[in-house]
Amino acid sequence: MNIKELREQAESGSVAAQAVLGGCYLHGFEVEVDYVQAFRFLSSAAERGASRAIALLADMYAQGLGVPQDIGKAISLYEKAAARGEFFAQIALGRIYSKGIGVRPNQEAALKWYSAAAVEEGDCQEWHAAQAYVRSVSKRF
């Protein structure tokens, strides 16, 4: 599917298309980066429950991409998506709590979210990092 078709579907109300197109605008895949359009499409999809869109909105708030940086809002959105099983939201929360990004470091919360991500099937860098964190922390207990 090309961007034109994706945009037509998104404008017609397809939640999946809105989430994908929002991600395209956020990261510049096949389109120029446009945070206004990213926020528009991701917000629409997130309001209708798309977990990946919620996590991408959280990324926008965490990094201040087109919106004022707000780690509290980012964490709230990440937690909503992570509770629904969104892998990258779980990874983001593990990182935030393990490193104390905008919050006090919280090893228990980091372990919770990294553990949730580590049980997923995967072979990406984030998955390996989650596995390593869980192994290293589990040895301490």
Can you give me a brief rundown of this structure?
The protein is mostly helical and 141 residues long.
Question: Could you describe the 3D structure shown?
Answer:
71% of the residues lie in helices and 0% in strands. It has two domains: 84 residues, Alpha Horseshoe (Serine Threonine Protein Phosphatase 5, Tetratricopeptide repeat), CATH 1.25.40.10; 56 residues, no CATH class. It starts with a helix and ends with a helix. By secondary structure, it is mainly alpha-helical. The radius of gyration is 16 Å and the shape is elongated. The longest helix is centred in the C-terminal third of the chain and has 14 residues. The chain is built from eight helices and no strands.
Features of the shown structure:
141 residues; mainly alpha; 8 helices
Topology of this structure?
Blueprint: H1 3-11, H2 15-27, H3 35-47, H4 51-63, H5 71-83, H6 87-99, H7 107-118, H8 125-138
Helix pairs in contact: 1-2, 2-3, 2-4, 3-4, 4-5, 5-6, 6-7, 7-8
Number of helices: 8
Radius of gyration: 16 Å
The count of strands amounts to: 0
Question: How is the quaternary structure best described?
Answer: single chain
Query: Low-confidence segments, ≥5 residues, pLDDT <50?
Result: none
**From the coordinates shown, what is the CATH architecture of the largest domain?**
Alpha Horseshoe
User: How many discrete domains?
Assistant: 2
Order of helices and strands: HHHHHHHH
CATH homologous superfamily title of the largest domain: Tetratricopeptide repeat domain
